[in-house]
Design goal:
Radius of gyration: 19 Å
CATH architecture: Alpha-Beta Barrel
Helix content: 25-40%
Largest sheet: 9 strands, parallel
Keywords: Isomerase
Pfam family, one: AP_endonuc_2
Number of domains: 1
Structural class: alpha/beta
InterPro entries: IolE/XylAMocC-like (IPR050312), Xyl_isomerase-like_sf (IPR036237), Xyl_isomerase-like_TIM-brl (IPR013022)
Protein name: Xylose isomerase
Number of helices: 12
CATH topology: TIM Barrel
Organism: Lederbergia lenta (Bacillus lentus)
Shape: globular
CATH superfamily: Divalent-metal-dependent TIM barrel enzymes
CATH class: Alpha Beta
Strand content: 15-25%
Order of helices and strands: HEEEHHEHEHEHEEEHEHHEHHEHE
Distance between the termini: 28 Å
């Protein structure tokens, strides 16, 4: 029986000369249950595990005082808690990302068993080209510190990275001015789409640097157009964090697999990325209880092919 190109791509991933079974493991970004974690941290982790998730990405927004994943626990106690629930940590956002704090943060994550850390929203607005290039220098330094410990550093996008400086987009400038052996990427396909870009094209273009993939979904009916630059945000003006939060309509998120984003096409394209093992579900806002929301996404996401849960 002849295989279609897509079926063949799903079966094999070529890394050097080694062929391996090709499917993306599904994880959950703990930001999706952040309110529940504040109230009942360990009970929430239990519910995440009970929903069937085995891989988690953390989001530590208190990295000035917390070396770890935002729980305020030693690495050993945090690892014991995750191990007891059958959960594996596959990444962590670290905010703010400060060089002087990084050794302690990396020590913690090494002991925890986490091989990569990333950053997302703290580095914009990108004020001018000089600022942007200095950020690129910082990203390279962080990447070097991670590499020295056998770890990886990754950059997570929102839609702001697709503003332009001259004839180039911020994302392009970051990619061109960071070392691909030091600075990897976590693509958020939702925010790429809301920037008016095609996530399939970007995955293909930068697939060698892609180490994590964030998947959200956009509802069939929403109060905003899908592209933020279509009358919501002026692409020629500086986008501040308050502006980002004030214009991010909660009704523009829906459980993953229930909306209109081309998720199967995204998976079909992403599975050929040589360094990508995980697709991470993330829910910024929901009208449901957070645990109900991640359960709904879990069930809806099972219809896709090219993924695995174990």
């Amino acid at each position: 029986m002849k295989l279609s190109l897509i079926d063949l791509k799903r079966k094999l991933k070529i890394i050097g000369r080694e062929a391996v079974t090709m499917a993306l493991k599904v994880g959950i970004q703990l930001y999706s249950v952040r309110q529940s974690l504040k109230k009942e941290p360990f009970e929430t982790l239990e519910k995440v595990a009970a929903a069937g998730y085995k891989y988690v990405e953390a989001a530590n927004h208190d990295a000035l005082t917390d070396d770890g994943v935002g729980f305020g626990l030693s690495a050993k106690k945090m690892k014991d808690a995750l191990d007891n629930l059958g959960l594996s940590i596959v990444g962590c956002h670290v905010n703010p990302l400060k060089l002087e704090r990084l050794p302690a943060v990396l020590d913690y994550h090494q002991e925890l068993g986490n091989k990569q850390i990333g950053c997302d929203i703290e580095f914009y607005p990108y004020e001018d080209m000089d600022y942007l290039l200095r950020r690129c220098e910082l990203f390279n330094k962080v990447g070097e510190m991670c590499k020295e410990r056998g770890m990886r550093y990754y950059y997570h996008n929102h839609y702001q990275e697709f503003q332009k400086f001259g004839d180039k987009k911020v994302y392009e400038i970051i990619m061109e001015n960071t070392d691909p052996n030091l600075v990897f990427i976590e693509m958020d396909t939702y925010w790429i789409t809301r920037a008016g870009e095609n996530p399939l094209n970007l995955i293909e273009k930068y697939k060698d640097r892609l180490v994590l993939l964030h998947q959200k979904d956009f509802p069939k009916e929403a109060p905003q157009p899908i592209v933020m630059y279509d009358g919501i945000i002026d692409p020629d003006k500086e986008i501040t964090y308050p502006m980002f939060e004030d214009t991010k309509a909660p009704e523009c998120f829906t459980e993953i697999g229930t909306g209109i984003l081309p998720i199967q096409d995204i998976i079909d394209t992403a599975v050929t990325a040589p360094n990508l093992d995980f697709i991470i579900l993330e829910q910024d806002h929901s009208s449901l209880d957070e645990i109900d929301s991640i359960n709904t996404s879990m069930k809806a996401f099972q219809k896709y092919s090219g993924i695995e849960w174990d």
